[in-house]
Amino acid sequence: MAYVISVINTKGGVGKSTIAVNLAQAFHLSGQKTILIDHDHRQGTASQWRRLAEEQERDAVLVTSADSDLSRLVKDLRQVYEVIIVDGPGYLNKATASMVSSSDRILIPIQPSSVDLWACEELVDWIDQRQMITGGEPEASFVLSRCHADWRVSRDEVEAIAARGFPTLTSRTVQRVSYARTLAEGGTVFDLPEGDKARTEIQAIYEEVTYDRA
C-alpha cells in the first residue's frame, strides 16, 4: 500500500512544485516505485517538466494528471505504487480538501515570512479539522523554502511559523538559480554533482521524511 505525500500551499511562488518534483525524483532514484500526481491545473509544472524529461530520454519519475476526483485516483494508485507524491494547486478549492483527506503526510512549503504564514492559515485550519476527526492524521509539517542564504535574518518569522503548531522540518531549501534551471532543462538537482548545495538540500528533506516514516 503506497505512502501518499502531498505538497500543498495555497500561496504561489513558495517553491511547492520544485520540492514536489525533486522529492519524487529522490524516491524514484532510491528504487521505490513512485509516481507524481500533477494536481495543479493552472500551472502544470510537473507535467511540463515530465514532457521535457521524456524528450531528453532522462530517467525521470512518472507523472500523471488528476481530474476532479483525486481520491479515486489515489485509491487506485495505492495498489500499484510504493510512494505517491501529489503536487497540489496554489489556491484553495475542493481539490485541496480532497488532498488533505487522501494523504498520509502533508508538506507545506513556506517562505520564512509572516505574510506567507498568514496566506496559508485557511489551509492549516483545514488540516487541523481533519486531524481532529481522524485523531491526528494526516501528519503535517512546514518546510522552510526559498530561504535567505543566512536564514538567521528571518529568525523571528521562523519562530512564528514554529509556534503555529505543526512541526517544521530541520531541512530547508535556499533561494538558488539551480532549482529553476534544472527543472527548465527537464532535470532535477540530482543531475548536479554530488555535494552541490541544492542537491544536498533536497537529499536532506528526502532523508528526513523517510526517517520520520520509519
Describe this entry's structure for a reader.
This protein is α/β, with parallel strands linked by helices and 214 residues long. The chain has one domain (3-213): Rossmann fold (3-Layer(aba) Sandwich). It is 45% helix and 14% strand. The chain contains 9 helices and 6 strands; from the N terminus they run βαβαβαβαβααβααα. Strands 3-2-4-1-5-6 form a 6-stranded parallel beta sheet, sandwiched between helices. It is globular, with a radius of gyration of 16 Å. The chain starts with a strand and ends with a helix. The mean pLDDT is 90.
CATH class: Alpha Beta
Low-confidence stretches: none
The CATH homologous superfamily name equals P-loop containing nucleotide triphosphate hydrolases
| Separation of the first and last Cα atoms | 15 Å
Strand order of the largest sheet: 3-2-4-1-5-6
Give average pLDDT, whole number. 90
**How do the SSEs run, as a string of H and E?**
EHEHEHEHEHHEHHH
CATH topology: Rossmann fold
Please give the CATH architecture: 3-Layer(aba) Sandwich
The structural domain count equals: 1
* Main sheet characteristics: 6 strands, parallel
Percent of residues in β-strands:
5-15%
Percent helix, as a range, is: 40-55%
Q: Label the structural class.
A: alpha/beta
Tally of helical runs: 9
Q: Give the beta-strand count.
A: 6
**Rg estimate, integer Å:** 16 Å
Shape: globular
